[in-house]
């Protein structure tokens, strides 16, 4: 069953009060009045008339606006107005021909296919780069090992040369007889 909604003028007539008073109460206590905006018109639920009559009675009893508000908070639930809005409602409405939509979808599909292929190539290249980095690390380790080996060998050679230089060497006779002066036989 659909609920009928009323304008503030209709509610004021049902509550037997002036439209100005009804509008003032509606603006002061809007959180307690179930309402709905239809087009440019704000409409209220039928129970709003009873609530406005109760507010008028509380004012006649001598309560102030904060006291009336406190009483309403204890007795009535507050309504929160939630606008159901399409997130794209601010955009102009354009009707697009289905052939254009299909062409756009095909172009997007082609673009996505190219992106997927590019990502596959990047993944393959990433694997190649990882393999090359591992090979480069192995070559660096081998180079360091060879460098250390050469340094050790050079140190051994230098040590052997120093030893040889520090040891006194006996004079050796030359085995080549030429170049010596011979004394003629007498």
Number of strands: 2
Helix fraction, binned, reads: 55-70%
Mean pLDDT: 83
Estimated share of beta-strand residues: under 5%
Q: How would you sum up the major sheet?
A: 2 strands, antiparallel
The number of distinct helices, counting runs of at least 4 residues, comes to 5
Q: Residue ranges: pLDDT <50 for 5 or more in a row?
A: none
**Succession of helices and strands:** HHEEHHH
Shape estimate: elongated
Distance between the first and last residues' Cα: 159 Å
Query: How much is the radius of gyration in Å?
Result: 52 Å
Record the strand order, biggest sheet: 1-2
Strand pairing plus helix content: what structural class? Answer: mainly alpha
What brief labels describe this structure?
mainly alpha, two-stranded antiparallel sheet, 5 helices, 186 residues
Walk me through the structure.
The protein is mainly alpha-helical and 186 residues long. A two-stranded antiparallel sheet has the order 1-2. Helix 1 crosses helix 2 and helix 1 crosses helix 3. The mean pLDDT is 83.
What is this structure's SSE topology?
Elements: H1 8-15, H2 19-28, E1 35-38, E2 41-44, H3 48-60, H4 65-75, H5 98-166
Antiparallel strand pairs: 1-2
Helix pairs in contact: 1-2, 1-3
How would you sum up this structure in a few lines?
This protein is mainly alpha-helical. The chain contains 5 helices and 2 strands, in the order ααββααα.
């Amino acid at each position: 069953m659909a609920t009928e909604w009323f304008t503030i003028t209709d509610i004021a007539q049902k509550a037997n009060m002036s439209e100005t008073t009804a509008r003032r109460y509606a603006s002061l206590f809007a959180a307690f009045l179930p309402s709905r905006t239809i087009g440019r018109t704000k409409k209220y639920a039928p129970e709003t008339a009873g609530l406005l009559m109760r507010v008028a009675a509380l004012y006649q009893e001598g309560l102030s606006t904060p006291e009336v508000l406190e009483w309403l908070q204890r007795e009535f639930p507050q309504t929160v107005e939630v606008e159901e809005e399409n997130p794209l409602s601010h955009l102009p409405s354009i009707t697009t021909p289905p052939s254009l939509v299909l062409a756009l979808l095909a172009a997007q599909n082609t673009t996505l296919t190219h992106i997927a292929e590019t990502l596959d190539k990047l993944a393959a290249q990433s694997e190649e780069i990882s393999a090359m980095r591992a090979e480069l690390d192995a070559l660096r380790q081998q180079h360091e090992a060879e460098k250390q080996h050469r340094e050790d060998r050079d140190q051994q050679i230098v040590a052997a040369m120093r030893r040889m230089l520090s040891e006194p060497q006996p004079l050796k006779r030359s085995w080549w007889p030429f170049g010596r002066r011979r004394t003629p036989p007498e």
